[in-house]
Amino acid sequence: xxxxxxxxxxxxxxxxxxxxxxxxxxxxxxxxxxxxxxxxxxxxxxxxxxxxxxxxxxxxxxxxxxxxxxxxxxxxxxxxxxxxxxxxxxxxxxxxxxxxxxxxxxxxxxxxxxxxxxxxxxxxxxxxxxxxxxxxxxxxxxxxxxxxxxxxxxxxxxxxxxxxxxxxxxxxxxxxxxxxxxxxxxxxxxxxxxxxxxxxxxxxxxxxxxxxxxxxxxxxxxxxxxxxxxxxxxxxxxxxxxxxxxxxxxxxxxxxxxxxxxxxxxxxxxxxxxxxxxxxxxxxxxxxxxxxxxxxxxxxxxxxxxxxxxxxxxxxxxxxxxxxxxxxxxxxxxxxxxxxxxxxxxxxxxxxxxxxxxxxxxxxxxxxxxxxxxxxxxxxxxxxxxxxxxxxxxxxxxxxxxxxxxxxxxxxxxxxxxxxxxxxxxxxxxxxxxxxxxxxxxxxxxxxxxxxxxxxxxxxxxxxxxxxxxxxxxxxxxxxxxxxxxxxxxxxxxxxxxxxxxxxxxxxxxxxxxxxxxxxxxxxxxxxxxxxxxxxxxxxxxxxxxxxxxxxxxxxxxxxxxxxxxxxxxxxxxxxxxxxxxxxxxxxxxxxxxxxxxxxxxxxxxxxxxxxxxxxxxxxxxxxxxxxxxxxxxxxxxxxxxxxxxxxxxxxxxxxxxxxxxxxxxxxxxxxxxxxxxxxxxxxxxxxxxxxxxxxxxxxxxxxxxxxxxxxxxxxxxxxxxxxxxxxxxxxxxxxxxxxxxxxxxxxxxxxxxxxxxxxxxxxxxxxxxxxxxxxxxxxxxxxxxxxxxxxxxxxxxxxxxxxxxxxxxxxxxxxxxxxxxxxxxxxxxxxxxxxxxxxxxxxxxxxxxxxxxxxxxxxxxxxxxxxxxxxxxxxxxxxxxxxxxxxxxxxxxxxxxxxxxxxxxxxxxxxxxxxxxxxxxxxxxxxxxxxxxxxxxxxxxxxxxxxxxxxxxxxxxxxxxxxxxxxxxxxxxxxxxxxxxxxxxxxxxxxxxxxxxxxxxxxxxxxxxxxxxxxxxxxxxxxxxxxxxxxxxxxxxxxxxxxxxxxxxxxxxxxxxxxxxxxxxxxxxxxxxxxxxxxxxxxxxxxxxxxxxxxxxxxxxxxxxxxxxxxxxxxxxxxxxxxxxxxxxxxxxxx
Length: 1136
Description:
- Helix content is about 55%, strand content about 10%.
- The chain is α+β, with helices and mostly antiparallel strands.
- It has a 5-stranded antiparallel β-sheet, with no helix packed on it. It has a 5-stranded antiparallel β-sheet with strand order 10-9-12-7-14.
- The chain starts with about 20 loop residues before the first helix and ends in an 18-residue tail after the last helix.
């Protein structure tokens, strides 16, 4: 029997025969899962009003279900749908987690999601046949969220439920403590149900004007039967008695509770609950409930003080002794709460009329009331009739008798309601009464034989030594926290502290035959990509050979190379390859050699299940979005990987997420082998920043001039993805600069510090000459956060603000403002600022247009249109100005270029020309429209903005036949700059017709110098679009201009919720560690926040490199695991 004063410090081990067998426990979980699933299906179809319709009609309706505006009153129903599916996800995941192995938990999470999601969709579809059930995207989304939450809880704490079942079924050790803790969690969850919190000021005003709250008593629950409010207050008092027991148990030996302190603690708890209920739409909040909860806590403390006398056998004996008066009082109270003394009794005729209107379908009336009222009714019935189970247990009778007596008594109470005015029976209460009485008696029998460990064991050891499970549950591996800290593997400390970047060869893995097979396959793909690369084969080949050798001996170098190459290793404008480019080959090389050479993390190392589950959910959304983007499936042809209208554009974008997820594993292996991965990655970001600054300074110097702030020229650097617009360069500058700031404060060498300050000035200059308004805001916020992080040092998890660092930060801020303000005051910047309001209107219209272009129906709302489908969708459905199109055509084996109409689109190639020279331009052209033209130009141009140009307008007869055309093209001043300011030159071809259907076909383009040399490569397009690249003037057909709307368009609400949760967890962890004084965590946080700020007005995630970088940053954010504080790096710091 339970003994709250037991002093067993180490529970004796029991034989496995004392515990339920694993198959038995597994069968119980299976039974629970099946039963609850059937309950969900049944409850979702009540009142079972079947209306037949054809399958096609139902499917057509289902495809067009809408996202409803549920409003204030419907929010509780929406939340309840999610809560209903939490046990579904939890039970199915628990059913699959028969092992605590990492892979098993992941598979259990995925399997649970698949089952739960399938069940949710199937139930919602079935509801179409059972009106008045409402089918909406809201319900599906809520059920998906609830399922995912339940599955996460199951895999995050995989042993807790099995432990509870073990105790409940056959191993009663510490059952009382488990029940008390479970009760505490359930009490808080029940108190806040249905979680329909106020979310706006009008709702708050409505709440203030309602009678659902009061300083002492809320008037709403006082309507009608006075016994019910009194019973509620009495139940509130009793409900918190177990919490008083838990409070005293947890503080045993550390604090003595006086009556005053107990009342204050209980009142504080009650006040918190009542305040929380005030901010719930359907919540009832009153001051009297604060007092009842305080009284309950005090009663619980009194019970704890007299725990030596609280044997269940004594309680049973007292109940038998006073059974008759207790039974009479119980029956009187039961009659009161059922309205016997409040409602007028009526005759048999009225009773028969009421009986005729009764619906005997279980839970029928629960459907027609609010979620809170339904749960309160269900709980109150169970509690009221559960007392019968206590009486039956005390009299040593079997639980079956409790079920029988409760069923009969509930039947009597419900029948009596036929004769009570304004009441009607609910047959469901009879079922609930029988079940609750049986379950209460059964639980009491189990508690009678359940010994309870002492308070000390309760606090520190929640697990029995032996449990019914497929995996071992450790029990107190160390005697104390200090001992655990001392015995912690040093390799984990190195993850945070080490300043070395050299991984000893002895720690590298010796490849197996499977590793060599993977290595050969991966490097074969890289070799194929390099050998087929359109230009600079020798240099690129040498680079990859050297990089492969470096990785083989120093795989940690990828942490520096990858972020640096992201910004600098981009040859798309020269090669024409932008689907799978040189950076993809570099990543493939890194991942292949990295996984072959780096040993995996220890098998039993701690897994971050929360972060892992959210990453899996995000990855699942990317998989679904990619598949939807690829559908309908098309066999790859010549245009599959040459433009953004191809369904394979999904692969181009999704590869950014794929690379990030693959790098997660490599980074984890490096961390487990003692590498300071954050420091190495920061170095790579700074190298990329330095290269980007050098390129943009050259770009400014070469084109408008370093100090020309009136010109409309906007830098792009080496970010070829900006050929359709975008914010890649300001994003990278914003993301990389915080790493520079933190490292600047860490360095003591004056030369290094001066170089860092120069780079910081260059980065500020670079951001300012992007003339991006949102870039300015993001950079300012990122700089502020990184400076705050750098100013603080940490010691024993406590922030210490350094005065010297503060002065240094102030000086840097002044210096950067001195750089930024003159550019900000420049004419072009001011002109852009004055257009902000007008541009905002354009953006709002553009966002609305993007969302309206989507397919109707819940699949699109939930899962999106598919990754990469926006350009194609805009081309077909948008009401805005459309972009010109281009594609490759083929006739009898001859490949040619076809240019459509729309806003200007330029097909370009870099060339080398001399100024004031004459060149012979020849090409074949064709059009079906008469009086058409094609324009060819040679311009000084880096990516987007042209300087000096020479144009040639070529007439085409438009008879549908190929024409061979020749013309002279004079270079004039193009290319006449001195050698130190030589500008790159491009030849551009574009369709300049104004006719709507003027499509131009172009082939065999040649630009011959005086010596007859052809300056163009692949002018016949026989190699597709190798060496050709395209740029545009209008970016709206290519970008949505909003990160959340882009994700919603591509991946639906599933993707948006998954990304939001993933990012929120990372930011919270990074922010917590930054607050504790971890400067590098502050830099990562600053970078991530800067990204999100830019994402308010730019898509960003449609650029695979930027997408990958952002996901990597969130991974670094998420590695600030709970309970681990940043350790101070043992190197000399600057400004200390």
